[in-house]
Write a structure and sequence with these properties.
The chain is an alpha+beta fold. It has two domains: 2-96; 163-285. It is built from four helices and 17 strands.
Length: 287
């Protein structure tokens, strides 16, 4: 029994040592590409959490693999505790400077990353690579008041609703896919031209703009008040405030060269901070 126990302790110790070395190499690689390519972690807190995990794994590995006296064990534990405590303090300082808004898509393939500067209210959208790495893509057009609501409208469409410093409601859409060939750019408004219907709600896209009818009341959004994000979604605005977002569902097929009606569904999502659910709309007729 003692031999088996000692054997398993060695196996666990070596595994922990490998994990510790792997995390250390990850951090070294990150520091290099961060300096050369301005790449960051999608969530700033990851840097400190990885340091903490690496030090814990290393300490446990040393304790399991080496026969140390109580004095050396105590000294090693104190050094590790000081390092971990330092990382926790640095993590707290980072959280007071930058708010990380991170959300993973339902299919676990995409990561939405937004970092808000808590001092000036500016928020930057980051394009992610390999899940944990990201580069800044663009600044959100309005300074925020710190409240965000994230909703994935599809596996590759994330709607970020936030309250701006000027008390308006804004929406930013993160898009990570395409409904066409992936080669050419297309306009969402043109692709959904026609009449769409869901439960107690109707959307019509025509030359005048996009109109939304909810509970018998119709509101028209002219093209000048419609912002497109990528090739998957648009935001309908009124008085410089977001009202709705429209996105192409995963089953939507873009075929700009075809005269056939649109195939698939679209989603309509209200811009508010209540966390409502998007409505799925079916194509009814060309307009």
């Amino acid at each position: 029994m003692k031999q088996n126990s000692a054997k398993w302790m060695k196996i666990v110790g070596w595994a922990l040592l490998v994990f510790a070395i792997g995390l250390f190499c990850l951090q070294m690689g990150y520091l290099v590409i961060h300096e050369r390519l301005q790449v960051e972690f999608a969530d700033n807190r990851l840097f400190y959490l990885i340091n903490i995990c690496s030090s814990i794994f290393l300490l446990l590995a040393v304790l399991l693999l080496l026969q140390l006296t109580k004095r050396f064990k105590a000294a090693g534990s104190v050094i590790a505790a000081i390092f971990i405590f330092t990382q926790v303090i640095l993590l707290g300082i980072s959280n007071q400077e930058i708010r990380n808004i991170v959300s993973v898509s339902p299919d676990m393939k995409h990561v939405l990353s937004i970092k808000e500067n808590l001092e000036n209210g500016e928020a930057v959208y980051y394009r992610t690579y390999y899940g944990i790495l990201a580069r800044p893509k663009e600044r959100l057009p309005h300074k925020t008041d710190g409240k965000f609501q994230v909703k994935w409208l599809a596996d590759d469409v994330a709607a970020v609703t936030y309250k701006a410093a000027d008390n308006t409601i804004q929406q930013y859409i993160g898009t990570y896919g395409d409904r066409g060939s992936g080669i050419s750019y297309y306009y969402v408004g043109a692709e959904i031209h026609g009449k769409w219907q869901g439960d107690n709600i109707e959307v019509v896209s025509n030359t005048e703009g996009i109109s939304v009818t909810e509970n018998g009341e119709t509101e028209l959004f002219e093209w000048d008040n419609i912002d497109q994000f990528g090739t998957l979604a648009v935001v309908l605005k009124k008085n410089n405030s977001a009202v709705w977002s429209l996105s192409l569902d995963k089953n939507f097929e873009v075929d700009s060269d075809s005269a056939n009606p649109a195939a698939g569904n679209i989603s309509l999502y209200k811009a508010d901070m209540e966390g409502n659910q998007p409505a799925t709309l079916d194509f009814i007729a060309p307009n």
